[in-house]
Amino acid sequence: MEIDLSQFSQVFFEESLEGLESMESELLKLDIAAPDPEAINTIFRAAHSIKGGSGTFGFNQVANYTHLLETLLDEIRDGRREMTSHHQDILLLSVDLLRNMLDAVMHQQTFDDPMLADLEQKFAAELSQAESQEDAASREPETPELTTWQISFKAGTDILRYGNDPLLMFNELGQCGELSVELLPQEVPDFTQYDPEACYLAWSLTLTTDQPLSRIKEAFEWVEDECDIDYQAQPKTSEANEIATEKEIEATEEDNIQVSTQTTPPASAQAEKPASQTRPSVVSNKTQDAGSIRVSIEKIDLLINMVGELVITQAMLGQIGQQEEMTPESFITMKQGLEQLASHTRDLQESVMQIRMLPISFAFNRFPRLVRDIGQQLGKQVELVLKGEDTELDKTVMEKIVDPMVHLVRNSLDHGLETPEVRRQKGKPETGTLTLNAFHQGGNIIIEIIDDGAGLNTQKILDKARAKGLVGSDEELSEEAIHQLIFKPGFSTAETVSDLSGRGVGMDVVLRNIHELNGTIELKSTQDKGSRFTIRLPLTLAILDGQLVRIGTHTYVVPLVAIHESLEVPAAHINRLSEEHEVIRLRDEYLPVLKVYEAFHHEADAKQIKDGLVMVVDANNDKVGLLVDELLSQQQVVIKSLEDNYSKVAGISGATILGDGTVALIIDIAGLVSLAGINNTQEHAA
């Protein structure tokens, strides 16, 4: 019977990618002069797990390469080799390579990258060099002390269903020394109760080795929770008394495993087949890139309790509904039940949202490597400080904010932080500091990217903007308004084009991506002191805090995070620039006003600004007024995608269903401004 391992492959991919993240993190933190043994062990275990899993699933290219990593790391952790910066470099490159290899396997693509052969040669040279040095320096070796371990291994019933093969574990164990395997007699269920996918076997293993128990246990680390395993050590003996002859030692791993022929169950025939016959292709279309998320047992238990409370309340309301006549007492009970239902629903909503919440450390963890590599590329010394790593936000938000964060970090490294020589001339420490910080504020998450670099050159930005025609030659702007110019499409002050920046694209894309998440970005900068980018995002994209507004007979939702204020504007503060465009004077600035009813072709009560309400909102870091008839309530709304259920509509980001069952559309402010053809505030004020 062949076992379809495709159902387990997604778990392997996820755990392997997590292992690579762990490897990268530990390698970046590693002190080459005095490496922490536990860190080396963590890196080794990650490589070992990937090797074992890829071998089980038949991903031979991944297994063969991780075997090289494992061999090098094993020598380092055993003290046979000193850790060097060269090792750190090739191991970090290996992390990148393995990510790409796993991605190719997940997409059922052939992996053909010259980097693979290059790194294999480097590992081979490194390992062969050590072997030749050991041969040249060899003396009479000390006789190693051996231990004979008696290992009782009873397989869990579901071990085969989970894609674990005992033969592979025994092969792994055989690498530690001389191994013999004896199949123990076991009771097998009657034919009517026999499960052909279950395992009813147990073995007695005898291993003579000089390896520690921790190394032996690694062979079973994937199944130790679901199998009964017992280790008993016999008295140590010398190599002369116990070790096999040299000829026997040179036997293959398969020959080292001596399987007893007392009892041979039908399953053994399957186990003895070559790997190519027993391991089918394990990446099926149904599992290719399927998303998943790990959830703590506590969150699941809480969710189950909430559902239980809802079931009880539903049963109570159901009994009332079955009554032929409603008494006053029944109305009171029904009211109490509805109140309980509302309370339980809110609690359930919060519990469900918590399932999707992950610490932002999942996003922060990629930046130590990025900062290290770019710092080396630019010849800059950078200390990365991470704060608020336990701050949680929705997994979907996190995935979409990573790219804007990467661009902002690259921008700080390239434009912000100076070289050691320049910093020394300015009286600064040669090492610059880049800080990533996250914290909750109200119903939002705040992410800050802070550097102590050169800051923005206000005059240079203004000159460039005037040269591009973004600012009039006689126009005066505040320092804050000048800083906002870097978010304009195509704007760049870089003198030369590089791989990192200077192509005139990027910051406008960052702004657009953040606005698509219903977020905002603020910039504060002081020349020669540094810059601070502050991103404000909702905790989740599934629920929105919104302001309901009425336009004629239609109800719309405006994201609350984008609203500054709402007001009635007297006629004296209204100026008409053209037939289509009007502006209002609000304190010391002029704001363009967008008549929403015109953009969406509605009949409205207030067709003139003086007759309605103007809602001042953020639009691409500028302020714009939206003319509406009436402000309704503020409430949380569940966002439904229009593209999934209908089609994309300009100026609309989604829809929601209100309490009365009607559908309200959610306004995309940036899209609506673009639809109406409104330019930036300063151009209107001029």
3D architecture notes:
The structure is a single chain. This protein is an alpha+beta fold and 686 residues long. 42% of the residues lie in helices and 22% in strands. The chain has a 6-stranded mixed beta sheet. A hairpin with a 2-residue loop joins β19 and β20. The relative contact order is 0.06.
Tell me the major beta sheet: 6 strands, mixed
Structural class: alpha+beta
Coarse morphology? flat
- Portion in strands: 15-25%
Report the C-alpha radius of gyration, rounded. 33 Å
The spatial strand order of the largest sheet comes to: 15-19-20-18-17-16
Q: How much helix is in the residues?
A: 40-55%
Low-confidence stretches: 237-288, 680-686
- On the 0 to 100 scale, the average pLDDT is 81
Q: Specify the number of helices.
A: 25
Number of strands: 23
For the record, give the distance between the C-alpha atoms at the N and C termini, rounded to a whole number.
79 Å
Summarize the structure.
By secondary structure, the protein is α+β, with helices and mostly antiparallel strands. The chain has 25 helices and 23 strands.
Core attributes:
single chain; alpha+beta; five-stranded mixed sheet; flat
List the helices and strands and how they pair.
Blueprint: H1 6-29, H2 37-57, H3 60-77, H4 85-106, H5 114-136, E1 147-154, H6 166-174, E2 177-184, E3 202-209, H7 213-217, E4 228-233, H8 239-242, H9 246-249, H10 253-256, E5 257-259, H11 266-271, H12 275-278, H13 297-321, H14 328-355, E6 357-359, H15 361-364, H16 367-378, E7 381-387, E8 392-394, H17 395-416, H18 420-425, E9 431-441, E10 444-451, H19 458-467, H20 479-483, H21 507-516, E11 520-526, E12 530-538, E13 543-551, E14 554-559, E15 563-567, E16 574-576, E17 582-586, E18 589-595, H22 596-599, E19 613-619, E20 622-628, E21 630-638, H23 642-645, E22 652-657, E23 663-667, H24 669-676, H25 681-685
Parallel strand pairs: 2-5, 7-9, 14-23, 18-20
Antiparallel strand pairs: 1-3, 1-4, 2-3, 6-8, 9-10, 10-12, 11-12, 13-14, 13-21, 15-19, 16-17, 17-18, 19-20, 22-23
Helix pairs in contact: 1-2, 1-4, 2-3, 3-4, 3-5, 4-5, 13-14, 16-17, 17-21
